Amino acid sequence: MKRDLAAELRRPSALSERAGKLVFSLCAAASLVTTGGIVAVLLHQTIGFLQAVPFTRLLTDTHWTPLFAEPRFGLWPLLCGTLLTTGIAMMVAIPCGVLAAIYLSELAGERQRRIVKPLVELLAGIPTLIYGYFALSLVTPALQQIIPGLSGFNALSAGSVMGLMLLPVVASLSEDALSAVPTGLREASHALGVRRTATIFRVVIPSASPGIAAAVLLAASRALGATMIVAIAAGQQPQLTLDPRDSVETMTTYIAQVSLGDIPTGTLEYRTIFAVGLCLFMMTLVLNVIAHRLRRRIHRQERP
């Protein structure tokens, strides 16, 4: 009787376990199928584009005017605009985010932490459209009073505000990495007479450096894919320049500009957005793979 009762109790749990595995497997398969579909569409359209425009032309030409009467297909202006705004954003996000993570993890009390951390994470919930108009209507006029020659649409204000948008990403992931550092390392450093500040910068941060690097790379991949901020504040002029005072056009801005226009489907101009999208996809993929490997390295270090 007891054996029959135990068998009856085990049977529903086994069925529910199988159902759970099936649901999880379907979710994982859906993500793989979606990613595969995106890659297939990008490759199909890009191959059609490269049949008309040689790949060497993308690398050797220095102008990007595919919608002009005499089209030119140099990818460098879009690439420079993307890297310029991303670099400025990371120059803002990295020091501010890491310092905020150090304060939350090592210096703040429980009460201060309950107040400051939600305020920092609140920045992640602001729509990027708001960030774009904030950069255009407030940051750019303020910078024009300080920096001569700053145009109305420029990479500096767009990148700076983008850095504020990325601050919660860097701060949250860096705080997790700092909190994962064993307490014994801090105690050993204090036992040797090392002050608290020196312990943070010479013991804790080096130990958490892989996690901080992963946070930076994930933030950089998000910066590469930002659209509304750069579309509103950076302008839509593809220029081969590294001057942050100039107006630039990023890859995402060009994709948004063309996809919302009157370009007929299947034309060479239409396929340019897939070629640019594939390039952007490869850049973010490389950053995400490196960040994933760094996070796996952290997990291996945390295991006893």
UniProtKB/TrEMBL annotation:
One cellular component (GO) term of this entry: plasma membrane
Domain ABC transmembrane type-1: 79-291
Location(s) in or outside the cell: Cell membrane
UniProt keyword list: Cell membrane, Membrane, Phosphate transport, Transmembrane, Transmembrane helix, Transport
The keyword Disulfide bond appears for this protein: no
The keyword Metal-binding belongs to this UniProt entry's keyword annotation: no
Membrane topology (UniProt): Multi-pass membrane protein
Parts of the chain that traverse the membrane: 21-43, 75-103, 115-134, 146-167, 272-291
Assigned protein family: Belongs to the binding-protein-dependent transport system permease family. CysTW subfamily.
A GO biological process held by the record: phosphate ion transport
Protein name (database record): Phosphate transport system permease protein
MF (Gene Ontology): phosphate transmembrane transporter activity
Function: Part of the binding-protein-dependent transport system for phosphate; probably responsible for the translocation of the substrate across the membrane.
Predominant cellular place of this UniProt entry's protein: membrane
